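note to self — DONT lose this again. spent like an hour looking for the file last time. sequence + predicted structure for the chain T wanted, 393 res
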Amino acid sequence: MKKKTVKDVALKGKRVLLRADLNVPLSDGGVEDDTRIRESLPTIKYILDEGGRLIIMSHLGRPKGEVKPELSLAPVAERLGELLGQEVVMAPDCVGAEVKALVDQLTDGQAILLENTRFHAGESKNDPAFVAQLAELGDILVNDAFGTAHRAHASNVGLAEVLGGSVAGFLMEKEIEYLTRATESPKHPYVIVLGGAKVSTKIGVVDNLLKLADNILMGGLMANVYLSAAGHKVGKSKIEPDLLESARRGLSQDLDGKIKLPVDHIAAEELSADAKGEYFPQLDLPEEVMALDIGPRTVESYKSILADAQTIFWNGPLGVFEYESFSGGTRAIATAIAESSATTIAGGGETVAAINKFGLARNFDHISTGGGASLEFLEGKELPGITSISEKE
């Protein structure tokens, strides 16, 4: 780890601004899934135990610069307080005189959660005036929000510039270490599993990792695009036509046949909870159906490749796992990865949802909290939220 971490700075009596990723799903006025809150606990507890005066910043949802009460972090403050066993003060805003007064009342080992930073347009715009207001609240910036590392926002990049740098929290440190291992020094055979609906974010990953991975297994809409690019009939399966040329380029560069595509499908005429999947043993699909899951022969082929892997990175389900009729492929591959002796890394919101649905979270070495950030890291892009963290001397 070349970056400074929270252990490299003195915290006692300091006002510590912590950029955490507490962007959790809410339901009926409470926290529906507290995974991201729990992931942030080691850093939060360390700062409090060291006597820091903790000011936590986070966004929630996409309010786009407007105050939206349904996206308030108040339920998060309540849940965080329960997990810590101490009160977490909920601020009415993230900047301003009232917030400054609350921060000034903090004593060593106390915490306050600022309101949703994205209620202000200056957050996403990294506006200097908004950055200056945030900077008034703290002495040290700890960045533990890997999920926003690919964004140059006020609460990570802007603050780091004003406060003379930042240090990584424990979650950020873990993310950097595992993903660096996956891009610079993976143990081979190295297998990447790519699926899901957001194909455009993964095309660059394929191009970058073809030279490093031993196999790239595809499913979901990802596979549809590459199957179509290879000249196969995908019926009325959804594809992104503007990505076909990029997919063709990737296939043409794949001289060793590392990209593996489905050879059979579970398909239906429509996607609904009541739709019944029909098995199509052939590669090409008729016009009236859409591929909604990988077939059993594809599952067995992929499992045989995963069985020999030493490093596995997975992003994106291989079918519409939310519906039982089309969950078999994703369940089988998720289980194979979880039972593997390889170093297993997973990322992406849909991927995490699938892992949790199948009860496999404890079997993965690392589940990344940042889908877009992890993909851009694997693509070889420079992430501003990481670049802004101070280097060790």
